[in-house]
Amino acid sequence: MTIHSKVFGGTNFEPTTLVELLRWRATNFANSRAYTYLQDGEENELLMTYADLDRRARAIGAWLQSLGAAGERALLIYPPGIEYVVAFFGCLYAGVTAVPAYPPDPTRLNRTLPRLQAIAQDAQASLALTNDSILSMIKIMRIGSKVTDSLEKMPFLKKFGSSLSSFISQRAAIVNAKDLSDLNWLSTEDIKNGYGKDWKHPEIDKDTLAFLQYTSGSTGIPRGVMLSHENLLYNLALINEGFGSRPDSEGVIWLPIYHDMGLIGGVMQPLYAGFPCALMSPVDFLQHPLRWLNAISRVRNKQIISGGPNFAYDLCARKVTPEQKEKLRLEHWKVAFSGAEPVRPETIDRFSETFKPCGFKREAFYPCYGLAEATLFVSGGYNADPPIILNIKKSELKNNCFVEALPGEDDSQ
Questions:
Q1: How far is CA 60 from the centre of its chain?
Q2: Which residues are CB-neighbours of 81 under 8 A, at least 6 positions away?
Q3: Where are the alpha helices (DSSP H) in 206-309?
Q4: Is the CB of residue 214 less than 8 Å from the CB of residue 361?
Q5: 133 pLDDT band (50/70/90 cuts)?
Q6: What does pTM read for this prediction?
Q7: Neighbours of 216 (CB within 10 A)
Q8: Which end of the chain is more exposed for a tag (fewer CB within 10 A), N or C?
């Protein structure tokens, strides 16, 4: 019995790459929903089946193959959306190493571009895949003084809420970002599905580098982690075991897709386990945290898997009003994972008590720990177990010893 047997045990299928995995889902469950993107964080939905995703991935993959890009490394620079997911799998289908990255913020280029530049340089990327809006932004930053007032009406400027004057004033940021200017910038927005007829399965196997996952860079320069197809599939199996995913599971994820928790846990995990997932922009969640809980409430007859960092639960507990809570139904939220930052007992208690009238059960909380250097998941227990909270002696941790503290001891945490 292999680590994948619980998911694919009833078949002879044993995935060795993510391309094989998606192709298998598209063949056997073509019309099943893979992802729903909540375009406004509410009910404006964009649906994508496994067949849709495979079709788009083959088109982008064939297009990249026609450019001789196999073996190259490509930055993925998109706003939150289904385009990001499609471009990622398009790279896998082409044998191109994807490099997920934060999209540039036109209002803070002097702050956001250095991180992007560091990633481009470290990854030795030759391509940058994006959409028409961001590609237009890059072109404008290059032509500088030739920009006319008419450009101020361009859709992408309105979308980012940036005036032309503030946008152009930061032109130096990208002009000086030589590693970015030297990239071959390409938009995948208008690639026709017809390209897919020329797609050829890339020469990849379990040991092939799938993508480079960069650390957040919050404590220093972002570090790239090389993740093979086998790394990813093995970690996805571990997550599946811990979460206890079932055929009637459904995901609801607002986490950034360019972050390992959002991409691996929110996009790849549902694909691996075979359940649909609703995605939304992190900005939509931060603006109105209720949107996350509303999206969970709208799902019926499913076992919901959803989560985020500790702050997200704290934010909901503080911001959602009693009147808003009356409309929430959270009894089917079975796995509320909490990770990416310290999991605080007081947040678990506060959230559980606040949303108990909505049907939320405290035992749904799933504290977990992971890091990009380990693909994603490191530890987390089993979903059926309630969260375990212990006070331990900090002084003993310095000696690599785990010693439980007695109640009231000043040394506990």
A1: 20
A2: 37, 39, 281
A3: 229-243, 260-263, 269-273, 282-287, 290-298
A4: no
A5: confident
A6: 0.88
A7: 14
A8: N
Q: Which two tokens stand for residue 133?
A: 């809006």
Q: Check: CB of residue 338 under 8 Å from CB of residue 365.
A: yes
Residues near 386 by beta carbon (within 8 Å), at least 6 away in sequence: 362, 363, 365
Residue owning tokens 């375009």: 39
For 391, the token pair is: 């006070």
* Residue range 111-135: mean pLDDT, rounded: 88
Q: Give residue for tokens 């990255």.
A: 101
Phi/psi for 103 (5° steps) reads -70, 150
Site of tokens 């909490």: 338
Q: Are the C-beta atoms of residues 265 and 299 closer than 8 Å to each other?
A: no
pLDDT digits (tens, 9 = 90+) for 43-99: 889 999 999 999 999 999 999 999 999 999 999 999 999 999 999 999 999 999 999
Q: Which two tokens stand for residue 132?
A: 């028409």
In sequence order, which ranges of 245-384 are alpha helices (DSSP H)? 260-263, 269-273, 282-287, 290-298, 310-319, 322-325, 345-354
What pLDDT is recorded for position 164?
47
Q: What are phi and psi of 330, to 5 degrees?
A: -120, 15
Per-residue pLDDT tens for 194-233?
999 999 999 999 999 999 999 876 666 778 999 999 999 9
The proportion of the chain whose per-residue pLDDT surpasses 90, expressed as a percent, equals: 64
